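Attaching the record inline, Q. Sequence:
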Amino acid sequence: MNQTGKRKARILVVDDDPGLLRLLTIRLRAENYDVEAVESAALALAAASRFRPDLVITDLRMDQMDGIGLLKELQNRWPGLKVIILTAHGTIPDAVQATQMGAFGFLTKPVDKQELLDQVQRALRISGFGTSDEDWRAEIITRSAVMEEKLAQAHMVAGTDARVLLTGEGGTGKEMLARAIHRASPRRNKAFVAVNCSAVTEELLDSELFGAPQPAAAAPGAARPQRGAFFAADGGTLLLDAIADLPMRLQVKLLRVLQENAVRPGGGDPLPVNVRVISSTQRDLQQLMTSGQFREDLYYRLNVVHIEMPPLNRRREDIPLLVAHFLAQIARESGVRKIYAPEAVELLATADWSGNIRQLHNVVRQNVALSQTPIIPAELVQQSLGGTPGRLPSFDEARDEFTRSYLSQILQITGGNVSQAARLAKRNRTDFYKLLARHQLTSEEFKQR
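Structure, as predicted:
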């Protein structure tokens, strides 16, 4: 087996020659790869959205959209996805051009089996697939399709040095995803350094990021000046958390570092650094740019790949999993083992989590600490949530609420004219009256006086 991961590497093969497509599929499946084969670029784009390949192998010459066009579209949609180009001898210059545009490499037809397998292994290794063994995402507890989409995007970009901007509400796990990207990257064996841009004064943040200035006349035996986070993370990854709060003077300084790949401690000579930068924020950077509080040029330097973390309210299916994870974590730390009553889990799963995962974690810890029995009751959860917790309406309740709102709006528009409202709603007059009665509405309420 060529992969050490818990799942097979997924390879999408694109060629309008059915015979070659079949041959490549057989060879790759024989090496235990998961292969999807399609005969056009259009089918490839549709398959990529569903199949989520770790690697794409595509023919250069195809009707409608060729391999170059497909490469550009894949790069646009999934930065970091590796693409190998297949080419005939007469089109090798075009294939070389494709590699200059970002293709991982090219193979000439007829495709040599060993050369194919060697290049596939190299592409997967560089993308971070073969060595991460899924441990890169072990801290992220999810079965949400929305979150899996973000993780797939993160894994693709992890194999590159592209800068990533993580956005989302507070408590959604932006730092955790940044660490996961680092673990899935070729930089995984180097340092991961996180700096909160809003936690300290401007002077301290300057020193923490870029290093303290060298004293004009340092005393013999004096401690060496601090060299800053860019040096601490050299060869690894630097997370700039709360980047929106970075003072304007330091925004200018950061922009220069990103342009030069070098830091000037205390304004001295530039010292080269090799750092992958990930930024995170819960504020709207575009709005801050409009108001002049964030530099546009810095924004585009940082926002090469954008991943927006979903709030917990959009991944409710993860709440029972997260609760179980937190309970197990607390049990390991303290030896105290408790579980929730079924009604309590239901309350947690339907509550409004404005503080997201961080808030859920705090509530679970509070419940474990305050519960006097091994089974945490619903009443304790309700107290933690501030009395009556928010509750998701049932499907029937939500439908009734929508229908009543719709009827009210259409009667408002028609000034209480039932015949006109029924026509707009495309219902007969009798049925419309029944709907009004069922939702306790009368046309008189909407007649203009």
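The two ends are 80 Å apart (CA to CA). The longest strand covers residues 82-87.

More tomorrow.
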